[in-house]
Amino acid sequence: ALALVKSKTLNPFKGPSINQPPNPNDLTLSFVEHTAIIWKKQEPQMPLRIETQIPHKAEKVWAVVGTPDRIDWVNGVESCEYSDGIRRFKMDGAGGLAEKILLKDDDSFRLEYSVVESTPKLAAHKASIQLIRNESGTTFVWETEVDPAAVEPFIQQGMETSLERLREVLAKEN
Fold first, then answer.
1. Tens of pLDDT, residues 108-125
2. What one-character DSSP code corresponds to residue 93?
3. pTM of the entire structure?
4. Surface-to-core class of residue 81, CB atoms within 10 Å of its CB (0-12 exposed, 13-18 middle, 19+ buried)
5. Is the torsion defined by CA of 91, 121, 68, 88 positive or negative?
């Protein structure tokens, strides 16, 4: 992927068009009408991925994680409102967060969602939860892609602690 960074300059050199990036293997600095155009090659982000075994049937796990407004298993959430495919969380000490449910498939036990409002604002976010039946219960696969990458440790910690809470909730419901 290429990132475009613009900065004002007084240098009058002309260069390639803004709409025609240079070779993606190069770092190029050019000037178009007194504006510096810097094209930088960026490595594609790898999603955060947690895959774990849960000793409960997929249907039981899905009854918790596949219910968009159920928050007893989600770390740091005080309350949740769910309407028209958007769930709005009030976070402990962190303000609000809104996620759009992109896919909720009860047959395949798959949930996909994206943060659409947050503080601080994210440039991009998409996550999925996939449950897979197995002999010992359920394989839980949770993936998240987020930009800026600087928030990945916070997101990963939230995923890990939410999975711990999920295990506690499922154990109590047994």
1. 999 999 999 998 889 999
2. T
3. 0.73
4. exposed
5. positive
